[in-house]
Structure formats: structure tokens, C-alpha cells
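Following up on my earlier thread - several people asked me to post the actual chain instead of describing it. Fair enough. Here it is, all 406 residues.
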Amino acid sequence: MMLTLALRNLWRNRRRTLLTLSAMVVSVSLLILALGVFSGMIQDMLASATEQYRGHLVVSRSGYQDDHNLFATFHLSAELRQQIASDPQIVGLSPRLRAFGLLAHGLNTRPAELLGMAPSQERQVTRLQQLLVSGSYPAEGKSGALVGRGLASRLGVVPGDELVFVTQAADGSIGNDLLQVSGIFATGNSRQDNQLVLVSLPWLQELMVLPGQVHELALALHDPLLAGQAAARLDPLLPQGLDALAWGELLPEMQEAIASYDVTRLIMASILYFATGLGILNTLFMSVMERSREFGILMALGMSPWRIRGLVLLETLLMSVLALAVGLALGLAMTFYMARVGIDLSGTLSPITYAGGTILPRLHAVFVPANLVTPALLLLLVTLLAGWLPANRAAGLQPVTALRED
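Reply from S.P.:
Thanks for posting it. Predicted structure:
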């Protein structure tokens, strides 16, 4: 009987109920879409910082990531490599050697960071091969160079041109050699685009007089957010003097930005639902005031105040469940569209570097369970809280007084 009464009461004033339901549906669907787009921005920032340069996890000498000491190298033995690769979270690893020096082409000279790597292994860790604007990815065993777009522009080079690299080798000699530009990449990160050059690891080891040595081992994981746990598992397996550092230790600003996302999500939902809750409160108060005589008759027939209160709360719950079902469906549909198509703003906006990552000029969404659970639970909570005051007013009516109201 309570369910029948609640359903009948909801549709007594169809226009008012539909307006309230529309506000709830719009709130839920837009919040789900906004959170999905915001999650996409966070994902892009993290990917730009870890999947374009650093990796999700890095093994190196203690302190190397702070000062990039030329002599802080280690030998990556087959045994050590196998121990590290045995972790179930690791999907790729790439040994690297880093050098700093001058690149020259014609009359143009620029400082640059050369990252020696094995192309087939680097592809497992970073995705620069997907960001080429011209040329091709360096071939295995060749002395080709993959150059950032900003640096290529300053040097005035295109794929096929030759570069001269000059640096100081580990034995104190002056290392210099020729490089052929194989390709040009663009990440949107000004530091990488203006300074970074990827070259062959054996070529750089020979030039730097560091045979068989590397500065770091970059790792890619199934889930970047579990990098801290993977680092804790790897640390006991490493020889003394080597550390496993998760991206959160290398990029503390990025770690803070992602950690604050849960709080931001709750704040966004609270602000939006506060306005929605006021609308629900107004609707239910109007409904209760219009039905004062009806409540008086029900109490005169023996219905207890708690059942009156429960009837109003049941109406509120039914309205929120209906709005939630429609809102979730609409929000998922819009999120799916933004995930598949998105909105390209590159014509009006440029990439923004923030917290060590890059926010790309495109809007796209990703599916995160919490982006659905949080709006759903908060909507139920807000509607029940909004319904509590009208329910208390209905339960507090005196039958005699209520029966006299028109």
C-alpha cells in the first residue's frame, strides 16, 4: 500500500515532478561527464610525464635522478634483468644511458640531452613512436637520432640531415661524432621538444667510453598507479647502491595533483548537488503542504507519524532512483561519445605544462568506476536529506488541525 500511495502522489502534479526529475537527471549526467573529462586530463598528464620520457618506474644509482652524475652507472646483468622482469606488474623495460652536450648543424648550435636506448625495448616503455611529425623511429643498431620538434627547428634540420654532437666522455676526452636525423617528434612538453634527442645505446656507450654501462632502467607497468607498490617489491631484489623509484617520487607535484583528484571530485559533486537538493526540498515541501488534509485523514484512520514520515521518504527515494537510472544512462552515453570522439581544441589552445606533465588541447573522457559511484551515492544521500524536513513536517501534523486545512 505504501508503494502504491507513493507512486500515486509523485504523479499528482506531473509538471512539478518532471521538472524536479529533469534537474536531478541533468545534475547526474553532467557530473558524470565532467568527472570523466577531468579523469581524461589527469590520465593525459600522467601519460605525458611517464610514457613519453621517464617511465612508470626507474631503477638507477642512489641519487642519480637528483644530479644526473655521469659516473653513476651500473652494469645490467642478465640475472638482474630477469629478476626485475619477473614482477607481474612489469610489461616492459628499457636500459638507458644519458649524456649532455652540444648539437650542431651548419652555423646553428644548441645544448641537448641525448638518451641512449635500444629502440625495440624503448617502444615498450615510452610512446614517442606515436608522436612522430616527420621521418621514422630509429632503427635497431643504427646511429640515427630522434629529435624534438623545437630543437629541430632551432637547428634547422629535417630527417636525413647530419648533426655533430660534442661532449666530454667519461675518461676525460672530448667525445664527438656524427648523427643522422631519422625522425622528429612533438610531445607538447617544451622541455622535451626543445632538448631531448633519442639515439642508439651502443653508439652512445662507445662515444662516452662507458662500455656496457647504463644510467637507468626505465620500466612500464600494467597500472601506473601501483608503481609505488612495485618499487617496494623490487627494492629488496636490487644490488646495494641501486634504488627503484616510482614516478610519484620523481614527480611529487604530479603525485599531489592526482592525490587531490578524489577531493576535487567530492567538492564538484557537493556544489552541484547542493543546488539540486534545494530544488528537491522545495518540491517536497510544496507537495506536503498541498496534502496536509490527506495526511490528517490518514492519521485519523490510524496511520502512525513514522509511517507518514516513511511515505514521504519513500516518494523521495523513488524519485531519486528514477532520476539516477536515467541520469546514469545519459551520463554514460555522453562519456562514451567523449571517449571515442572527444573535442579537439588545438586550433585555439596550445598544450599546457603542469606538475611535470602536459595537458593536451583536446577534451576526452575515460571510464572510472568512482566517477559513477560517487554521483550515484551522493544523489541518494542528498535527496534523502532534502526529503527529511518535509517528512518531519508531515509526521508532526495534528489530525484535527490538518483536516481543517483546504
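The first strand starts at residue 57 and ends at 61. That should answer part of your original question.
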